[in-house]
């Protein structure tokens, strides 16, 4: 179990209740992190408890060349299932990124979506704040800061596409989906061309993908929101196809400057050291362990297991106990038989005396 702490200066109590509510109820899905019904507040934080993901998030598991095709497909299938679960309830996650996909097994056979702090009802007007630029769809970036836009499930589809692209290639396709990003502009030209009358050169990273995978990403990373699908049902059409055309070894030996500067923006931004120390101090004041002594942890687990073992006594002792129980049961049965016999004798005597009394009465 882990504790998620939300600093009060940046979190309204209504936002805390909303995130806790969505986390608690959506956690029934196998690919959404489990949230426990334990929540409390301290002087500076709202806190609730969640399932522990031993391998961290995708950010810490994706290498410079991605996680491979097989693992990427596993992540895609599970993440799509989690998002479809939200969309079926008319909810939009709005913050799908590597940091919010937790890894529970090293072969990526179990990953879970987390962090529902930005989740809203589909169609709700939301205010644009400091969205994580590499994952934001172009229509959101066109909205000025502090202005409102409608939360749509197609936003999750776009972010899903970015996450899977990074899993496959190890790099973001662009820094931001805006006209001031040359890589995105190159993608726009390629995406808008039909490849016949005016062939447009494919962006370098997209050359790593097969034609089927390119078609999939062109669908999920559709720049026009009205053309982009609102769900991920189409993913199933591509899962059986090959996605990668070149090996990571080819990429490692091909040092092209176009690849530089793409991957650093994947890394997470963490809270300040001051905030972190304040949180650790608060938790310590309430007697909550903030550091893990792995050796002591193993000892506690071993002691707990040993204390939980049911020890069996010698076979002779067990037989003696069984014999005693049988003797006691036999005694009880004998008592019941004697009681029944006594009742029958009394009934028999009564039956004999009754006719005599009747005869005497008749003679008088």
UniProtKB/TrEMBL annotation:
Domain Protein kinase: 1-244
Skewed-composition ranges (Basic and acidic residues): 332-354
Biased composition (Acidic residues): 313-331
Biased composition (Polar residues): 355-364
Region (Disordered), start-end ranges: 307-364
SUPFAM superfamilies: Protein kinase-like (PK-like)
GO molecular-function term, one example from the UniProt record: protein serine/threonine kinase activity
Protein name: Protein kinase domain-containing protein
Organism lineage string: Eukaryota, Metazoa, Ecdysozoa, Arthropoda, Hexapoda
